[in-house]
Amino acid sequence: MWEYSDKVKDHFLNPRNSGVMESPDAVGETGSLSCGDALKLFLKVNDNGRITDATFMTFGCASAVASSSALTEMVKGLTLDDAAKLTNDDIADYLGGLPKEKMHCSVMGQDALRKAINGYRGIQIQEKPGDVVCECFGVTDLEIIEAVKDKSLESAEDVTCYLKAGGGCGNCLEKIEEIVESAKVEA
Amino acid sequence: MKTIYTDNNATTMVAPEVLEEMLPYFSELYGNPSSMHSFGGNVGLKLKEARQKVADLIHADPGEIVFTSCGSESDNAAILSALAANPDKKHIITSVVEHPAVKNLCQSLEKEGYRITFVPVDNMGRLDTDILYAAMDNDTALVTLMWANNETGVIFPVEEIAEKAAEKGILFHTDAVQAAGKIPIDVSQAPIDMLSLSGHKIHAPKGMGVLYVKKGVKFHPFLKGGHQEGGRRAGTENTASIIGMGKACELAGSHLKEMDTRVRAMRDHLEAGLLENIPAATVNGEKDNRLPNTLSIGFDAVEGESILLLMDQTGICASSGSACTSGSLDPSHVLMAMKVPFESAHGTIRFSLSTYNTMEEMDHIIEVMPGIIQRLRDMSPFWKKH
Question: In this protein, which residues make up the domain named BFD-like [2Fe-2S]-binding (chain A) (predicted)?
C-alpha cells in the first residue's frame, strides 16, 4: 500500500479533465507503454497566450493519474510564460505531497507540459543529449546530472524515484551512483 | 462493504480450527517443551503430534521435519546447507522465476563467486528442461526450483527433475510454499532432498515455516545454538504456531480434493467470466498445468496499481504483476521472463482463491471488473477502441 494523500486519492478516483481534446492548440506527450506510465497533455491557448483549457490521457498508477489531473487544473488560466515555470514539485505540492518513490509521476507532468509549450512555440525539441545510462527507461547521463543539481538528489535511489533510471533491471545503479557523486561535487 | 479476499497466494486467513488449537499455548500451557517437568513435557508431546501431521501432508517421516520461522528461512537454510555440505562444488541451478527468497540469495552467492545457472522459461511459464539438464555437471552442488509459481500458478515437473538430479548425485531442493495444500505432495515418490513450506499460505499463522530434510541428507544448520529440532535449527520452539501448523496441515490434506474440484471450478468460472466480459484480456501461464486456485490475467493498456486501487474501492483484494505496487518499476520478473508483452504485463492482476471463497463472490468480481477496466481504458492513451 502506498500512503497517498487525500488529494491524490481524490484526483485518482475523480480525475478532472480526462479525455481527448478536439482540435487542441498544443499537445505534449511523454512516457511509453514499456515504461509503465505515459501522459498525453492537450492544451487550448488563446490569442493572448493564455491557457484556456487542458485535458489529459494517462496510462499509469494512481499517482500518475492524479498528477495529470492536478496538472490540468493548475495550468488552466495561466499564461504560457507562467505555465512554463511550473515544476514537478509544484505538482506534488498541489497534491499534498507524493510518496518519494512516486515523484517521477510529477516529473512526467512537468515534462509533458514543457513539450506542449515548446511545441506550441515552434521550438524544436532537442533529442535527448548525452549517453544513455539506463537502458530500461532510456535515461542519459546529462539528464541525471541535471536532476541531481535541480532537485538536490543525494543518491542513486533518489534518481530512481525522480527519473525511474535504475528502477528496471538495476544493472546501471552503480554507474548512476558514480554520476550522482561527481555531480554533487560540482553542484 | 464486504471484503472479498482473493489474494491467498500472498497470505491466508488463519483457520478458526487452527486458532482454537493454538490459543491455550499462548496462555495456560506456556511450558518449554525441553523442560524435564511434565508441565513443559506435555507441550513437547503436543509438538510431536503436530510434527506428525505436517509429515503426513507431504508423506514424510516426522524426523524429517524441521520447524523454522518462515518459508524464506527454509529456502535460505536449504541452499546454504547444500553448499556447506559440498564445499568443493561451486555451482547452483535454479530458474529465472523463483521467489525472491531463492532468487536474491542466489544472486548474492553469485557475487561471492558461485556459478549460478538461471534456467529460462517459455512464454507459458514452462521450464526449459533441456537447458536445465545440460547445466548439471560435476561442480553442481544443488538444483533448487519452486514446485509451483506464486504469480501464475504454473507447476514445474519437480519429481522428474529430482530423479535426474539424483542420478547425477546432485542435491535437490524445492520451494513448495505455493504448491502445499493446493496439489498433492508426496516426497516418498521422488528423491527430493529438501522441501520448504510456509504456514501462512495454508491457513496457519505468519512466522511459521517448515523445512523437510530427507533422512540421510547431510544438514548444516542455518541457526546454531540449542539442540532443538534435532540440532538442525536452534531456538526455543514457537510452540503455539507449530501446533497451529500441525492443525493447518491436517486441514490442508483433507481439503485437497475440494481444491481440485470446487476451488478449481470457481477459478475457471472467474477466468471464463472475465475473458468473456472484458476485451483484450489474456491469461498468463500454461492453462492446463496450473495450481487450481490461481489466475493471472493481463488487461491491455491499463496499469495494475490503478486497477487494484479501484478494486479496493469495491472491497476486492488481489495482487498485481506490475511494478508500481512493489517499488520496482518494471513488471514482475516472472512476467518479464515469460516475455509477456508490456501492454498486458503492466495490467496484470493475480486472483488467488481459497476454500473460503464462494461462487457468489466470483460472480460479483465478474460483474465489477469490466467497469473498472473500462474506466481506466477511457483515459489511457494506449487504448484503441475495439
Answer: 132-181
pLDDT in tens, A85-120: 999 999 999 999 999 889 999 999 999 999 999 999
Element (H, E) at A107: helix A103-120
The beta-carbon neighbor of A33 closest among B306, B329, B382 is: B382
The answer to whether residues B270 and B147 belong to one domain is no
At the fourth CATH level, which superfamily is domain A132-186? BFD-like [2Fe-2S]-binding domain (1.10.10.1100)
The fraction of chain B above a pLDDT of 70, given in percent, is 97
Which of B209, B232, B254 marks a domain boundary?
B254
Residue B24 is classified by DSSP as G
In DSSP notation, B260-315 reads IIIIHHHHHHHHHHHHHHSSSEEE-S-GGGB-TTEEEEEETTS-HHHHHHHHHHTT
**Inter-CA distances, A21 with A18, B141, B295, Å:** 9, 62, 37
Asked if A36 and B324 come within 8 Å (Cβ–Cβ), the reply is yes
Domain of B43?
16-254
Residues of chain A with pLDDT under 50: none
CB of B107 within 8 Å of a chain A CB? The answer is no
Computed over every residue of chain B, the mean pLDDT equals 96
pTM: 0.93
A40's grid cell = 498525453
**Residues 328-347, chain B, touching A (beta carbon < 8 A):** 328-331, 342-343, 346
DSSP classification of residue B62: G
B342 and A62: CB-CB below 8 Å?
A: no
Cell of residue A73, nine digits: 487544473
Query: Which residues from B are below 8 Å from A139, CB to CB?
Result: none
Would an 8 Å CB–CB cutoff place B380 in contact with chain A? yes
Q: Which residues pair with B4 in a beta bridge?
A: B316
Judged by a CB distance cut-off of 8 A, whether residue A162 touches chain B is no
Q: Which of A61, A105, A161, A172 is catalytic?
A: A105
**Architecture of domain A6-120 in this structure:** Alpha-Beta Complex (3.90)
Say if residues B101 and B108 touch (Cβ distance below 8 Å).
Answer: no
pLDDT digits (tens, 9 = 90+) for B126-160: 999 999 999 999 999 999 999 999 999 999 999 99
Q: Tens digits of per-residue pLDDT, B83-107?
A: 999 999 999 999 999 999 999 999 9
